[in-house]
Write a structure and sequence with these properties.
By secondary structure, this protein is α/β, with parallel strands linked by helices. The protein has one domain (about 1-15, about 30-200): Rossmann fold, CATH 3.40.50. The chain is built from nine helices and five strands. It has a five-stranded parallel beta sheet.
């Protein structure tokens, strides 16, 4: 999986050549992953790829890893097995990914709702909530038709309901950065700066040598 992630990172660096890579966050990060959380359409994957390229770190998309593990797409998993089956697999896959840090990890919209996953992220990562307003989200999700939770329903009403359910939980993330209609690079810069400030007071614990 690390080889795959390294390939993605190298490709992302080529695709996003405008800003130059910055120095890694260093020993203060330790083996912790930077975990992006938020609702569908918040930009976790787009921002995550650019963030990883800027920091010279691997990028992992949890949904992509779930699809690889199941050998089917997420819409197919939902259709064939249902959401509870998907969520159980999601929990296992994210726990496995977190063991491979440090990296930038983009999670699916419902992942952070799972208490077990939140605890794992708290232990092995730094969570960053990409918070977005309804107007921003509704424009973004209309561009795609592969969102299982938006099938057969009014997308805007579904988004409102999900926001009501999930935003109080997302608010437990270590950091919050507003996702809005500006260039992705601007959001990346805000995430990096927020991380630098956070790490000054939350450095990684020193590993105990045997």
């Amino acid at each position: 999986m690390s080889d795959i992630a390294a390939h993605h990172t190298a490709q992302n660096a080529q695709d996003d050549a405008t800003p130059q890579a910055v120095a890694p966050l260093g020993p203060a990060l330790g083996r912790r992953s930077i975990v992006l959380v938020g609702i569908m359409g918040a930009g976790k994957s787009s921002v995550g790829r650019r963030l990883a390229a800027r920091l010279g770190m691997p990028f992992i998309d949890a949904d992509t890893e779930i699809e690889k593990a199941a050998d089917m797409s997420i819409p197919e998993i939902f259709a064939k097995h249902g959401e509870p089956y998907f969520r159980a697999g999601e929990t296992r896959v994210i726990a496995r990914i977190l063991d491979g840090g440090p990296q930038v990890l983009a999670t699916g919209g419902g992942a952070f709702m799972n208490a077990e996953t939140r605890a794992a992220i708290r232990t092995k990562g730094i969570s960053v909530w990409l918070r977005a307003a309804l107007e921003v989200l509704s424009k973004r999700v209309k561009r795609r038709n592969d969102r299982p939770l938006l099938k057969g329903a009014d997308p805007v009403e579904t988004l409102k309901r999900l926001m009501d359910e999930r935003y109080p939980i997302y608010a437990e993330a270590d950091l919050t950065v507003e996702s809005r209609d500006v260039p992705h690079e601007a959001i990346v810069e805000e995430v990096i700066e927020s991380l630098r400030v956070y790490l000054q007071s939350h450095p990684a614990a020193e590993e105990t040598k045997p």
